[in-house]
Amino acid sequence: MLLQPNDQWRWFMGEDKHLMLDLGAEMLFSSPYMEKHLVCSASLDQCFSVEDTGLYYRFIDQLNTMGSSAQRVQAALNGVAVARFYKPLMPQSWFFEPQADYHQPELGELIGLDVENEQLTMMVVETSPSASVCISLSAPRLLSGSKQLNTFSAIKVMNDRLVSLDIISNIDDIRQVG
Known about the structure:
By secondary structure, this protein is α+β, with helices and mostly antiparallel strands. It has helices at residues 50-62, 69-85, 165-177; strands at 10-13, 18-24, 27-34, 45-47, 110-115, 118-127, 131-136, 141-142, 148-149, 154-158, 162-164.
């Protein structure tokens, strides 16, 4: 069951300093994002805006082949939270392998990042000509001795590190035919 945004949804900061979304009908969504990583204050109380709704539906559409509807809603709401409230990030591309083909992603696109013979699945939540902010849709992964990338963690990477999952899917389809 997909949740449908309405004018009752409200962003606020929870007592534990996590960004929360009141969905009405005694339902709360708790994001993994702490106040110290966000551009909002502890007194935050804002409606889920028209822009938030547009992002939510865009992310839901892109996630249509992944997981259950509950997992898609969770990923889409976390994507909106990062796009709307996350502090600007500096690129941390050195954790990921450069790609031969430069890929300019679209907002909400599912992409891959290669790290030590493994590919992480990410969703793009902010784009620019040179770098993109993504959230991880993969299981938690240690990137280095001190950097852990958890599910729904946000990271900014240069676009020369991104792998289009559509291209990989097309290559796999060709291999199956051939």
